[in-house]
């Protein structure tokens, strides 16, 4: 029988991410709740290998690794951009497309690869997806999902945000996420939408 969903009881929450852009957004979303947060990097936790083939699997790997290492609840995000003309790629492998030979990340090159591989297709549809996993040290995990539909543009536009933000225009706007202040990106983005589910499911009531 499935276990009943749990609420966070207060106390510290580990943010199981090493991505500075994600951490900024998650901290801003958590601030109004007065939850004490500490990041995996601040705790010196290693980055687990993301061996899953779905956003859920990878989010669970990251959240469970942090929760078991710290004996605290942990929240992880696994996310990516899905390009319709590429059959949903890079998807779960979005971060991998930015990895260079020396192991660093080059998002300009990753965005150029999207444009190159999708060149010639009139289909400009794209979507950002975020899966948040909330894990406890005893192995219990809950998931929350968010998605932002839109279009991709090339060349990239704007210097705000992080990662693939300059490539993506959300539905109903003419600016890329890279051209928006963080408060505007927060209105439509995948992570904020997943967070709204997390708020209702793990913090509400
Ligand atoms: P952690 O696993 O440590 O959280 P990561 O960057 O490795 O960090 P993922 O494995 O989930 O995270 O990869 C997500 C990729 O999608 C990564 O390249 C991000 O830059 C990109 N991405 C996710 N959300 C994004 C957003 O809101 N804006 C721009 N790019 C985003």
Description of the molecule:
The structure is a single chain. The chain has 205 residues and is of the alpha/beta class. It has one domain: Alpha-Beta Complex (Maf protein). Helices cover 29% and strands 21% of the residues. The protein has five helices and six strands; from the N terminus they run βαβαβαβββαα. The protein has a six-stranded mixed β-sheet. It is globular. The mean pLDDT is 96.
Could you give a short description of this structure?
This protein is α/β, with parallel strands linked by helices and 205 residues long.
Write the layout of secondary structure elements.
Layout: E1 12-15, H1 20-30, E2 36-39, H2 55-70, E3 74-83, H3 107-118, E4 125-135, E5 141-152, E6 168-170, H4 182-188, H5 190-203
Parallel strand pairs: 1-2, 1-3
Antiparallel strand pairs: 3-4, 4-5, 5-6
Bound molecules: inosine 5'-triphosphate.
Inosine 5'-triphosphate (ITT) is lined by residues 17-19, 22, 47, 50, 62, 77-80, 94-95, 98, 128, 161-165, 177, 189, 191.
| Largest sheet report | 6 strands, mixed
By CATH, the architecture is named: Alpha-Beta Complex
Number of strands: 6
What portion of residues is helical? 25-40%
Instruction: Tell me which ligands are bound.
Output: inosine 5'-triphosphate
The amount of beta strand, in percent, is: 15-25%
State mean pLDDT (0 to 100 scale): 96
Please state the overall shape, judged from the principal axes of the Cα atoms. globular
Topology as H/E string? EHEHEHEEEHH
In CATH, the topology is named Maf protein
List unreliable stretches of 5+ residues.
none
- The N- and C-terminal alpha carbons lie at a distance of 24 Å
Overall CATH class: Alpha Beta
- Using only CA atoms, what is the Rg? 17 Å
What count of structural domains? 1
The strands making up the biggest β-sheet line up spatially as 2-1-3-4-5-6
């Amino acid at each position: 029988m499935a276990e009943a969903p749990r609420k966070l009881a207060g106390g510290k929450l580990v943010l199981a991410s090493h991505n500075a852009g994600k951490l900024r957004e998650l901290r801003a979303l958590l601030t109004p709740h007065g939850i004490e947060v500490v990041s995996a990097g601040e705790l010196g936790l290693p980055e687990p290998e993301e061996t899953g083939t779905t956003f859920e699997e990878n989010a669970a790997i990251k959240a469970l690794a942090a929760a078991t290492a710290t004996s605290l609840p942990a929240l992880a995000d696994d996310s990516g951009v899905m390009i319709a003309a590429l059959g949903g790629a890079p998807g779960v492998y979005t971060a991998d497309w930015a990895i260079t030979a020396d192991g660093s990340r080059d998002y300009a090159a990753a965005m150029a690869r999207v444009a190159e591989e999708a060149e010639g297709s009139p289909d400009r549809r794209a979507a950002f997806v975020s899966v948040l996993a909330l894990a406890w040290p005893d192995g219990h995990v809950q998931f929350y999902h968010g998605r932002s539909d839109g279009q991709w543009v090339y060349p990239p536009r704007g210097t705000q945000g992080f990662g693939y933000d300059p490539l993506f225009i959300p539905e109903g706007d003419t600016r890329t996420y890279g051209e928006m202040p963080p408060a505007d990106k927060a209105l439509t983005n995948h992570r904020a939408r997943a967070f709204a589910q997390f708020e209702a499911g793990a913090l509400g009531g």
